[in-house]
Amino acid sequence: MEKIYTIPVNDAYANPDGCPLCFLKNKSETDYLDYYLGPSLMEPDTRTITNKTGFCPDHMGKLNKREANRLGLGLMLHTHLQDVKSDIGPKLSKIAPAKGNFFKGRDGEYKANLQKLADKIDARVASCPICEKLNYTLDRYAKVIVWMFAHDNDFKNKFANCKCHCLPHISTLLRVCANDMSQNDAADFLPLLSNSFDSSMNELIPDVEWFTLKFDYRNTDKPWGNSKNAIQRAMRLLSADRSDFDEKQGKAKQ
Questions:
Q1: What does the alpha-carbon distance between residue 4 and residue 224 come to, in Å, rounded to a whole number?
Q2: From its phi and psi, is residue 18 left (phi > 0), alpha (psi between -120 and 50) or beta?
Q3: How far is CA 12 from CA 18, 162, 237, in A?
Q4: Contact indicator for 23, 9 with CB cutoff of 8 Å
Q5: CA-to-CA distance for 77 and 181, rounded, in angstroms?
């Protein structure tokens, strides 16, 4: 019998295309983008978080593409900018060294302060509540996957028939398997994961090669086969699914 937390996993493994964890990630990411541009943006707790963290460049871009609530995005950015200014501005204004010769050893202190402030700025730019929620959610889904594999024979068959897991999410499954799965279950789970990886690679490598060979004028009139979208499929396998990996089925140069 399905439980509320197993339904999304079963849906993901029923999807015939791509990595099931990418399917779960994209669905969760859409929900979180809607959440932060929805009524929650006026909740004090949410604004306290977004004022401090902002969003990473990737999710900033995705929020910008959602034109349903441009006002909400503007309100969040306005108070976030104020927080950044009050946090970084005073430190940046005092970071410059005095001119003239340094006393012995003081130049090292000044350079260390530059590095410290640079690290602080990098951390602020990279911080993102959507990333944090996605990482937590995907970890929970991975735990559900290994639990279902051990306890649900129907799901075990679905997992065995899965065509592909992307490389980043293979890593996710390996870590959860190491922490949450018995050795006996892992003995069944890991060969299936390996088989799907080998099958994906054995199909993809020739397709990418044929994509490149189609740029040779001698192959102009030969059929593309499955290679026309091979570049996008390769990027998805290596890097997980992203909206900027949308397929562009251009023709090879003539």
A1: 43
A2: left
A3: 10, 10, 16
A4: no
A5: 43
Inter-residue contact 121 to 88 (CB < 8 Å): yes
Give the C-alpha separation, 36 to 42, whole Å: 9
189 burial (CB, 10 Å; 0-12 / 13-18 / 19+) is: buried
How many residues would you count in the chain?
A: 254
Rg of the Cα atoms in the chain: 24
**pLDDT, tens digit, 9 for 90 and up, residues 139-148:** 999 999 999 9
List pLDDT tens digits, range 21-33. 999 999 999 999 9
3-class DSSP state of 252: coil
CA distances from 229 to 19, 127, 162, 210 (A): 16, 33, 20, 11
| CA 191 to the chain's CA centroid | 25
Angle at Cα 172 formed by Cα 228 and Cα 57, nearest 5°?
70
Main-chain dihedrals φ then ψ at residue 78, nearest 5 degrees: -60, -50
